[in-house]
Every structure is written in structure tokens, then in C-alpha cells.
Amino acid sequence: MKNMPWPLVLGLLAFASACGHDDHTVGLTLRLPSLAAQTGACDEANFGGTNTLTAVMNFSPALSSCVGLTVDPSNYTVSGGCPPIPTGVVRPLSLEYTLTNSDGVAASLLAIISYVDLRPDTLRGAGDVTVDLSAPTPPSGTMVSNPAELAALPHDREQCASIDDATPERWLCEAEWNYVYYHAQSPPDFDRDKDLISNLDEACSGTLF
Ligand SMILES: [Ca+2]
Question: Which residues contact 196 (CB under 8 A, 6 or more apart)?
Fold first, then answer.
């Protein structure tokens, strides 16, 4: 599964700005993963051609959405812009990849759930903040690409309450819960034809659409 190297992909996506009198601004740099590296055999050409790969990034709680980001299928560089993100707290974030075919049929491929520490003490003296999502594993991040992984996320915030405050484990739990909460009305469907093979795996093998 891990035969393919993780490319180092940088996407300068967003700026964070402080509330109040301090208009200090920091840049956010995000290191993103290869989609192909998430699965075994993958023909990355299937992410291109007549299909369009896009990404949406959300900073919770529903403060900023970076929509319409374009993903270059040859190197997974995400380009686009985000509105300013208020600083001061640890903010959950999610990055969602969608593949759309020439008929406009869209399929959710992968969601990366993580967080960014924008607390004043963390930002003090810092230049740009880098969020490394290139290989998200708990407690830094979670990847979701099939219905079972989605179902395993906390659906009740109380599930996070027993985890110590101000720890990466707590921040990730809150981020996972945020993701579930904000998708409650329209949960992503990671297996559109319900054959127990994820959209991501099917995209890799060219059977998604
Ligand atoms: Ca399927």
C-alpha cells in the first residue's frame, strides 16, 4: 500500500487574522497528501482526463470555507484562496476531495480532518504556520475515504469530553465531531454504488463513473 512516495505538495491557501485591535496576519501553508498513495494500485490518470478534481477546505466552526479550489491531478497541488481565518483558538479543519465527471456527477473521494493551532501563545513570534496534512494519522489528523471510517467518527460531542483538554487527542476528537456535525444534513457518500468498494479505490481503477 505504501509503495508510492508521498509527494511534498505545498499549497498556500489561507491567511489567518487576529480579532480585535491586533491585525497581525499569518500565512497558512498546507502540506497535502497524494490521493494515489491512499490506495494500492492506482492509475492517477483517472483523476484527470474528462474528470475534474476539486477540493473544499472548511475551518470550523463554519467560519471560513475555501471553496472551488482546483487540484492539479498531476501533482495534487491545490490552488485557490480562502477568506481570513480568525485566530485565538485551535481551529478544526477539513479538506475534502471530490471528483466530478463530464456529466456533472460528483463523488466524494477523501476527507482529511485535522486542526490548526492559532492560539496567541503559539503564534507569538511565528511567521507562517505550516499544517502538515501529508500523512495524517491520529492525533495529528484523520483520513476518511469509506463509509466505515465515517461511521467510526464521534457522532456525539460527549465522546470527546473524557479526553484531557488542550491535548492533540482532544483537538482531533473535536475536529472529527465538527466534521460529522456540519455534514449531518448531507453526509458525504464515499461509496456511491454501495458495492463496498470506496469511491477513491474505484476512481483509481477507473470504475467510479
Ligand atoms: Ca463503490
Answer: none
pLDDT in tens, the chain (209 residues): 222 223 333 343 445 555 443 445 566 677 777 666 666 677 878 888 899 888 887 877 555 566 666 777 666 666 666 666 777 888 898 888 899 999 999 999 999 999 988 888 887 766 667 778 877 889 999 999 999 999 999 999 999 999 999 999 999 999 999 999 989 999 999 999 999 999 999 998 899 99
What is the CA(209)–ligand 1 centre distance, in A?
10
Task: Give the predicted TM-score (pTM) of the model.
Answer: 0.83
CA 121 – ligand 1 centroid, Å:
45
The answer to whether the beta carbons of residues 37 and 47 sit under 8 Å apart is: no
**What are the extents of the domains in the chain?**
9-205
Q: How far is the CA of 192 from the centre of ligand 1 (A)?
A: 6
- Residue 137 to residues 88, 93, 131, 140, Cα–Cα distance (Å): 25, 14, 13, 6
Report residues near ion ligand 1: CB below 5 Å.
191, 193, 195, 197
Ligand 1: centre distance to CA 188 (Å): 13
Ligand 1 centroid from CA 206, angstroms: 11
User: What is the whole-number distance in angstroms between the Cα of residue 85 and the centre of ligand 1?
Assistant: 36
Type of residue numbered 31: R
